[in-house]
Design goal:
The chain has 401 residues and is of the alpha+beta class. Helices cover 21% and strands 24% of the residues.
């Protein structure tokens, strides 16, 4: 489990450093294996301000920029990004800086024009795969400040070994409980409050679980009118720091809550569910022998009898407790999102993930038993966060079994 010290401090007001926190947790049976500094490779990158941008005299795609990076002199930097513009705050690698890939920034001449540094993209900084242009920073950032300080990044990550009997510690909250105990400090729980608007939709849906042992609790909530886009910078960088690849705002929220509270969630595109006579349904059932299902990673899998499946009554939409399906995933044009918060059988989930060689963050937690009493609160926190970063409105009502 990767634990951000900064994230931990949002739950427990611990002032101790990473090593001491790790030592205290180790004494409680939660062994500190390493302390990681995920953004050390960009610690020398600074915030710059593009003062001017002029066309390069000998290139159609390069621009010559003057940049204030907090140095004694304004820097001349040649930049090929299509989105660079005067007035922007941008990350700047000064001469002598070593980039994450190992390249050292040197004084150079590009098509005859001197360049003293580099204006960076997110991919060049190792923050994401986005290489469509330079990274544009908020206007309020102070020129010359280290980028990792300006972004308030999670710079210290504790790698904690979690034994199979401590599934309750596979989250920031779970480890925060232990840290609160170790340091005799109060624990602050996240506030749970959802402002629901519109008509109650729950009568239009039904959830059927023929074998309750397969899934002791299952709940759906609806968020309508969302806009799929990139997550805000703070969420993307926090997920990146703890080893989770940002994808889109809705998917990122479910991953963020999983890491924070330990409850695996899934977000479905409402429109992918079959509708009959104005009603939709979810059936959580056991798979038939040799039944086929294509998971989110694009691989068609042959299932064994008894593996848990979530279906819309006509076709599978997710492999229970392990991974969602290709046909119900969140797409760029998704508008209405169904949020699933459930508790799946630990043993069945473990066998499914291992028999299919498909180990996921969700299956790791379900096979160690998720606390089903927290499913409702976690669903509420998730819907509120989706509403905050993706727009839309949380619809009144829910369906659960």
């Amino acid at each position: 489990m990767l634990l951000s010290l900064k994230w931990l401090r949002e739950f427990v007001p611990v002032e101790a450093g990473a090593q001491e926190v790790g030592d205290r947790l180790t004494m409680l049976g939660l062994e500190l294996e390493d302390i990681i500094h995920p953004y050390d490779a960009i610690k020398d990158i600074v915030v710059g301000h593009v003062l001017t941008k002029e066309a390069h005299p000998d290139s159609d795609h390069l621009a010559v920029c003057t940049v204030d990076a907090g140095q004694e002199e304004v820097l001349n930097i040649v930049c090929g990004a299509p989105n660079v513009a005067a007035g922007q705050k941008v990350p700047v690698a000064l001469v002598g800086t070593t980039m994450p890939g190992g390249m050292v920034i040197k004084k150079a001449k590009l098509r005859g024009v001197p360049s003293f540094g580099m204006i960076c993209s997110e991919r060049e900084l190792g923050l994401s795969e986005d290489h469509n242009g330079i990274m544009v920073l908020p206007e309020g950032f102070k020129v010359g400040t280290r980028l990792i300080d300006a972004l308030d990044l999670d710079t210290e990550i504790l790698e904690i070994g979690i034994t199979p009997n401590r599934g309750d510690c596979l989250s920031v909250l779970g480890l925060a409980r232990e840290a609160a105990l170790a340091f005799k400090l109060p624990l602050t729980l996240p506030k749970v409050h959802v402002e629901a608007q519109g008509a109650d939709w729950s009568s239009e849906w039904a959830v059927n679980i023929p074998n309750p042992d397969l899934c002791p609790f299952y709940q759906l909530r609806l968020v309508e009118g969302v806009t799929i886009r990139q997550s805000p910078m703070w969420m993307r960088h926090r997920l990146h720091a703890v080893g989770v690849r940002p994808i889109s705002n809705i998917v990122d929220v479910t991953n963020y809550i999983l890491m924070e509270l330990g409850q695996p969630l899934h977000a479905f595109d409402l429109d992918t569910f079959a509708e009959r006579d104005g009603h939709r349904r979810v059936v959580v059932r056991a798979a038939q022998q040799d039944e086929k299902f294509t998971t989110l990673d694009g691989e068609e899998r042959t299932l064994d009898a008894g593996m848990g499946l979530i279906t819309d009554g006509e076709r599978p939409v997710a492999l229970a407790g392990v991974m969602g399906g290709m046909d119900s995933e969140i797409e760029d044009d998704t508008v209405d999102v169904m949020v699933e918060s459930a508790c799946f059988n630990a043993g069945r989930t473990s066998h499914t993930s291992r028999d299919l060689s498909l180990i996921s963050d969700a299956s790791i937690r379900f096979e160690r038993q998720v606390d089903e009493t927290g499913c409702v609160d976690v669903a509420n926190v998730t819907c509120a966060l989706i509403e905050e970063i993706a727009g839309g409105e949380v619809a009144p009502g829910y369906v659960d079994v």
